[in-house]
Amino acid sequence: MPLKKYEYLSDVWRDGIFDNKVVFCTGGAGSICSAQVRALVHLGANACIIGRNVEKTENAAKDIATARKGAKVLGLGAVDVRKPEVLAAAAERCVKELGSIDFVIAGAAGNFLATIDQISPNALKSVIDIDVLGSYNTLKATLPYLVESAQKYKTDGTTRPKSSTGGRIIFVSATLHYTGTPLQSHVSIAKAGIDAMAVSVAIEQGPKGITSNVIAPGPIQGTEGMDRLSRKEDREKSASLIPSQRLGTVKEISDATIYLFSDTGNYVNGETIVVDGGHWRTVSID
Ligand code: HXC
């Protein structure tokens, strides 16, 4: 069932701020990324979402397209972010069919619960390949288009009548590695790499007009990651330990995304926005 508007987007944003813009998103059929893309599409963007599972990706694309009349959402399945040439072809197809890539969300991730002694070298490699190399491959495949967009929509920071931004990438990370999280060493290692990459991109590519930032979601309700990686009773316990006293929502991740991609994020580069209700800062007293 498609999300209702209030479930993926706050009322504070103005319709049309992403008119004529295109977002390219890996992991776009997942709960968090599909909400991020849906919000951007609602506000005017067209989108290309990438996934490994063909049916899931195509269905998610159709579903996201219902957010706005006339929206174009391309769902490219059978694209493994570990394969640079397949990803490059997907980026090319996106530009051919939708005209540009103005925003990128690198959201594809792999995860499971295991202690470090249970993880084989290949298991660690799989997660690093999906998360770190996959994000790198996403960046490589889209950077020329992002630079083109950044140049087109360069801003001096003054207000214009209509928001017009481009050349922005968000890496979806986590907070697991800030304190150390049991059963999640593989993901912690990978997400630390992603965080470092996002900063490097900001510093090296910033002069070309690129902004590169990280969103680090905390425990978000109703997501596959949450359902698969935690037990219901643990979720209830962890909610009571979060300063905000509840799990987060996908809407709260979408709102951070719009902040970074719209005029509101013009001067934010190389940063991490943690959206976790204060959760990670309480882990040491758990
Ligand atoms: C130990 C495991 C394992 C487990 C797989 N492996 N599951 N080891 N415990 N539970 C090992 C396998 O035995 C194998 O090693 C290696 O990992 C590769 O497994 P494959 O199944 O061949 O790989 P692949 O099909 O590429 O799958 C990758 C995956 C998988 C990461 C292992 O879980 C996956 O693709 N998941 C994608 C969906 C997903 O997880 N999305 C949620 C993201 S949420 P050997 O040595 O046997 O060859 C998220 C949130 C982060 O990331 C923040 C959380 C709060």
From TrEMBL:
The keyword tRNA-binding does not apply. The keyword Oxidoreductase applies. Its EC number is 1.3.1.124. One of its GO terms (biological process) is fatty acid catabolic process. It is an enzyme of class 1 (oxidoreductase). It comes from Massarina eburnea CBS 473.64. It catalyses: a (2E,4E)-dienoyl-CoA + NADPH + H(+) = a 4,5-saturated-(3E)-enoyl-CoA + NADP(+); a (2E,4Z)-dienoyl-CoA + NADPH + H(+) = a 4,5-saturated-(3E)-enoyl-CoA + NADP(+). GO terms for cellular component: peroxisome. InterPro entries: DECR2-like, NAD(P)-bd_dom_sf, SDR_fam. Pfam families: adh_short_C2. Keywords: NADP, Oxidoreductase. GO terms for molecular function: 2,4-dienoyl-CoA reductase (NADPH) activity. This is 2,4-dienoyl-CoA reductase [(3E)-enoyl-CoA-producing].
